[in-house]
Amino acid sequence: MHVITADIVGHWKSKEVWINGKHITLRGFLQDLKTDEQEHEDNADIIKECKGAQQFSWGDTSQGTYCFSLACCFYLNVKWVMDRFFKKELEQVQQRDIRLIYDNKKLQVTYEMCEDLFAQEFGNFMEKLGAEKLDEKGAFGDSYIP
């Protein structure tokens, strides 16, 4: 994981957002995702999920806040699993101007927690499908068979 210091600034009245000094808009984010998708990623699911958001938000559980958390992942060059952290952080801030700063150490610890949470969610999902957990660990961690 490529971890860098995160500096996230949001102005509540205008809904303007900067991530590490880069001005971010929802339209610009979706365009950047489409460009990235053409180059090497498949971001169609994220583009679809964010399409209905009118603007970025924070201090609530709206789709705008979720898209903002995904934008944080994208522009900070961290794995998408980190949306679990950024969404929770953005939901907890007050609906006013914000500035969130995270250093490399905090982001690394948080990334490991998000990976563990994802593994738990995946395991629970597979169990609901009736898959049985194998005793051995595969190349990608816990393995399941249908």
Compose a concise summary of this entry.
The chain has 146 residues and is of the alpha+beta class.
Protein described:
This protein has 146 residues and is an alpha+beta fold. The protein has a domain at 6-104. The chain has five helices and six strands. Helix 1 (26-39) runs antiparallel to helix 2. It is globular, with a radius of gyration of 17 Å.
Write the layout of secondary structure elements.
Elements: E1 6-11, E2 16-19, E3 22-24, H1 26-39, H2 44-50, H3 63-75, H4 83-92, E4 98-102, H5 104-128, E5 132-138, E6 141-145
Helix pairs in contact: 1-2, 3-4
Q: Summarize the main sheet.
A: 4 strands, antiparallel
Low-confidence stretches: none
- Gyration radius, rounded: 17 Å
Going across the major beta sheet, what is the strand order?
3-2-1-4
List how many beta strands DSSP finds: 6
**Residue-averaged pLDDT:** 86
Distance between the termini: 30 Å
The percent range for helix content is 40-55%
* Overall geometric form: globular
Number of helices: 5
Oligomer: single chain
Please identify the structural class as seen in this structure. Answer: alpha+beta
Proportion of strand residues: 15-25%
Which sequence of SSEs, written as H and E, runs from N to C? EEEHHHHEHEE
